[in-house]
Specification:
The chain is of the alpha+beta class. Among the domains are: 88 residues, Beta-Lactamase (2-Layer Sandwich), CATH 3.30.450; 52 residues; 141 residues, Heat Shock Protein 90. Helices cover 53% and strands 14% of the residues. 23% of the residues are buried. The N terminus and C terminus are likely disordered. The structure holds adenosine-5'-triphosphate and magnesium ion.
Length: 459
């Protein structure tokens, strides 16, 4: 509740005053893609600036500036050799202008131009802002003049610099935008998918990113799994509702018919008694079905009431409830303590006993055993067993074997047993007995030590 209030921006009168943020700040940070874009742009820009500053600092010591100084010294020395011979000096200037493709201007110590040379095809003009500037000194060290060298190609003006800055900004814009879009798009997709699922489109799935093992891939997988589970659960609930409605209509119609028979003035006392007894049977069936549904929804709502139980006591209570002689109970003398929901475990056992009575000709034994960290409950019957091809399917919801015929039932009993076993840390099994025939169907429950960890309230 607190969080929701905070999300909607409601202020907490007792909390610290909220920070004031400008509209620009909100614009920059309100969307992840925009945030990433500006963050990446800033990082690239700062990196570029730092790199150029560092390059400048380093070149101050030993980079291109030092090289320029050496070049200037070399040129000064070459011109010093021929300074006093105008012919040689002019030839050297012409050769330097051609070789280096630079305009050359030689000046005397007073700054007057002595000579101008330029590469072939270029006008020889003065060189007010030289690229290289070499002092020419006589052997004694006295400065006799200056050689200036200017680039022939147009120099970097303000326009070119602006163009360069624009180009750099455009590249940063595209790069930062591309990265931000790539990173934010899967999240946007996920938000859309989750919103659709919330709106009831349960078949919607998130597209898995190419890097399926990334955090986003994991998130997409989790969302897809969640959607698949919800879809399956909703489908199962719908199927259950349809099946239960169908299962309830037949006995209810029969009850109505039986009541009309009993109410019929022409019916004798015997026929009325038989009709009432049949009504009772139908009501028992309806009660069992509703009981199974209630048990199932208790598990759906995680409303298990776990308490410490004696497994043998649970088994004998189930036998009594199903009206079976306690002599069928085969349990050890030691107390087998389990932690579980007494009502659900009894329901599971009553279902197994009911199956043995309805499909297997009665209960031969209800066995309780401890095997490792599990307590196993098993019901054996003397019937014809379960066909081998049906064995893998009998725990599926609504599955009824061919032998069930027209006997009442929805095919939910064993599915419920499986859910109850799973919620108690156990599993189910079914097998046909060799030799004497009959089936053996059972489930296990984790012993006290194991299931205690998952226990909620204990009495
Ligand atoms: N002891 C058994 N002997 C032979 N077949 C069995 C036995 N127990 C279960 N089955 C078969 O497994 C099927 C599924 O059992 P399940 O308890 O889920 O449904 P049901 O008994 O038919 O109906 P419901 O329990 O919902 O009233 C049964 O229809 C039956 O064919
Ligand atoms: Mg059953």
């Amino acid at each position: 509740m607190r969080d929701r209030r905070r999300q909607h921006g409601a202020s907490d009168p007792c909390g610290p005053p909220p920070k004031r943020r400008s509209a620009v700040w909100w614009y920059l940070t309100s969307r992840l893609q925009r945030r990433l874009f500006f963050a990446f742009g800033a990082v690239i820009l700062v990196t570029g600036l730092v790199a150029s500053v560092v390059t400048g600092l380093l070149s101050e010591r030993g980079g291109w500036r030092a090289q320029r100084v050496r070049l200037e010294r070399f040129a000064g020395a070459r011109f010093a050799e021929v300074w006093h011979d105008p012919g040689d000096r002019a030839r050297l200037a012409a050769s330097v202008a051609d070789e280096l493709r630079m305009r050359v201007e030689l000046r005397d110590t007073a700054g007057a131009t002595l000579l101008l040379r330029a590469p072939v095809g270029v006008a020889a003009t003065r060189c007010p802002r030289p690229t290289l500037r070499a002092r020419v000194a006589a052997p004694g060290g006295a400065v006799v003049g200056e050689a200036r060298f200017c680039s022939v190609d147009p120099s970097w003006g303000g326009g070119r610099t602006a163009l360069l800055v624009l180009a750099v900004l455009a590249v940063i814009w595209r790069m930062a935008g591309g990265i931000a879009r790539r990173m934010a798009r899967p999240l946007d997709d996920l938000v859309e998918v989750v919103r659709d699922i919330g709106d009831g489109r349960l078949d919607r799935r998130a597209r898995l990113p190419t890097h399926g093992r990334s955090e986003l891939g994991l998130l997409a997988r989790v969302v897809n799994d969640m959607a698949a589970r919800i879809e399956a659960q909703v489908a199962a609930q719908r199927e259950l509702l349809a099946a239960v409605s169908h299962e309830l209509r037949s006995p209810l119609a029969r009850v109505r018919f039986l009541l009309e028979t009993a109410r019929d003035d022409g019916a004798d006392a015997g026929a009325r008694a038989a009709a009432i007894s049949e009504v009772e049977d139908e009501l028992v069936g309806i009660d069992a079905l509703v009981g199974d549904l209630l048990a199932s929804s208790r598990m759906d709502f995680q409303a298990l009431q776990r308490v410490r139980l004696d497994a043998t006591e649970v088994a004998s209570r189930a036998l009594s409830k199903a009206g079976v002689d306690l002599a069928a109970l085969d349990a050890p003398d030691e107390v087998l303590t389990i932690v579980g929901d007494a009502t659900l475990l009894t329901t599971a056992l009553v279902n197994l006993i009911g199956n043995a009575q309805r499909h297997g000709g009665g209960v031969r034994a209800l066995r309780v055993r401890r095997v490792g960290s599990l307590v196993r409950f098993e019901v054996e019957d003397p019937g014809g067993g379960i066909p081998d091809d049906e064995l893998p399917r009998i725990f599926e919801p609504f599955y009824r074997g061919a032998g069930a015929g027209r006997r009442a039932g929805a095919g939910l009993g064993l599915a419920l047993v499986r859910r109850i076993a799973a919620s108690h840390g156990g599993e189910v099994w079914a097998a046909n007995l060799s030799g004497g025939g009959g089936a053996c169907v059972g489930f296990s429950v984790a012993c006290e030590a194991q299931s205690a960890g998952v226990a909620s309230p204990q009495r």
